[in-house]
Amino acid sequence: MTPRTDTDDPTERPRIPLSRRRVLRAAVAIADRDGPESLTMRGLAQELGVEAMSLYHHVAGKEAVFDGTVEVILAEIMAAVDEVDAPSPEDDWRAALRARILTAREVFLRHRWAPQVLESRGTTSPDVVAYLDGVVAILRAGGFSFDLAHRALHVLGSRALGFAQELFRPDGAAPTANDAAAEMERMAGRFPNIAGMLAAAVHDDPDGTLGFCDDQFEFEFALDLILEGLERRRAAS
Amino acid sequence: MTPRTDTDDPTERPRIPLSRRRVLRAAVAIADRDGPESLTMRGLAQELGVEAMSLYHHVAGKEAVFDGTVEVILAEIMAAVDEVDAPSPEDDWRAALRARILTAREVFLRHRWAPQVLESRGTTSPDVVAYLDGVVAILRAGGFSFDLAHRALHVLGSRALGFAQELFRPDGAAPTANDAAAEMERMAGRFPNIAGMLAAAVHDDPDGTLGFCDDQFEFEFALDLILEGLERRRAAS
DNA sequence: ACCTGAACACCGTTCAAGT
DNA sequence: ACCTGAACACCGTTCAAGT
After folding, report:
1. Which helix (H) or strand (E) holds A42?
2. Which of B145, B154, B221 sits opposite A218 (nearest CB)?
3. How many domains does chain B have?
4. How large is the angle between the packed helices B93-110 and B126-141, nearest 10 degrees?
5. Residue A98 lies in a domain
6. pTM attached to this predicted model
7. Strand D: which nucleotides have any atom within 7 A of a protein Cβ?
8. Does residue A133 sit within a domain?
9. Which residues does strand D reach (CB under 7 angstroms)?
């Protein structure tokens, strides 16, 4: 007898042995498709054609799986920032840092669930530290003291990794223009200033193709404002 | 027979009827004490001396409970900002906004779990919109166009509510000075720039009483940098 | 060494029944 | 109207057993 089994069924793929790497990649795939709240050990096992208990030979538990997905995302970021060609930080630290951050951002745009999972981790992963080490390297090359670089990390916060807290999230409701108009009417009473802001934005973009906010534009506006403030303090120091 | 039961046991408090308000206050109390991950419907019921199923007469389910805790926190913030006496925004929008934000921050410092729960809500609660309406009101009084006010909300992000993404969270490990030194040694190899930054910070604060970061100082530094950048753009507009 | 089935101790929630 | 007990359909995880 050959060691191969199930030869009668050609649809059965030869079994690839389970590994930590395969488990984590499957976890990222599930989060990409259904969101992180849909990630269960049983579902993850099913995705891999295996029983749930087999996972525990490769990861410590569910929390370790989430830690692992952050690892995968950060690795993707590190690979991306390594390839981008930006000005040397000695010549133009702002352009160098800007390029790094916007490159990292692209990865998070492909994995929109990742910020929430990253923030939910109790402790700072070494991969995040490694990424931030590169940020500090750029600042140092640009003439920052360690102290001012430290300030800079705090000012940037999650923006250093390319994402920002959005307090204003799309409602998802208001599918028709009429609903939107009714919603606006209601808001004008309770929230006159927000309503005025919304009206002004709609005026600038009458088709509303962008929705209320162009996230990329807002992100870059905020980033440039911060980089300018940091450069001002660096020059004064 | 009187309707009162259990008169034999004087420790049994007369039963206060359950209400949405009581349920949500108990939920906040549990989150304050044990963290939001420890909040379960069964535990919440026990805290209220009731069966789990009774809760469903006052809240739709667990997600509604979390929505409700955000409501409670935002109400606390609104009460706090109403009482603070700050410069009129017409005279000094920066001072007025700064005072509002630092007041909101105090509430989050009393409920450190709240940012994560607030961010986990899929949609923007009306209470957050009400708070931001006040922020926009200050900006408008300070001479901002609706458009620039919109930019400002995005730049501030969660900082408008008084909290910021901290990517660098205290490890909790390294309880002894020796452990910390060993940790530093290890970091110097993999993360030379972060390690240098850490060393510089320790040098400035040899007792290490503040830990690595003085959060309040960093928050205000970042806030002031942003307010300055916004004022510059307002003046130029 | 790697995988599994059955079981345990939890969850949120439904439902029919009590008062 | 408000509360409850039993039950259902899930979880993550342990353990002893298989190969």
Report:
1. helix A41-47
2. B154
3. 1
4. 160
5. yes
6. 0.90
7. 2-6, 10-16
8. yes
9. A 39-43, 52-53, 56, 61-63; B 17-18, 50-51, 53-54, 56-58
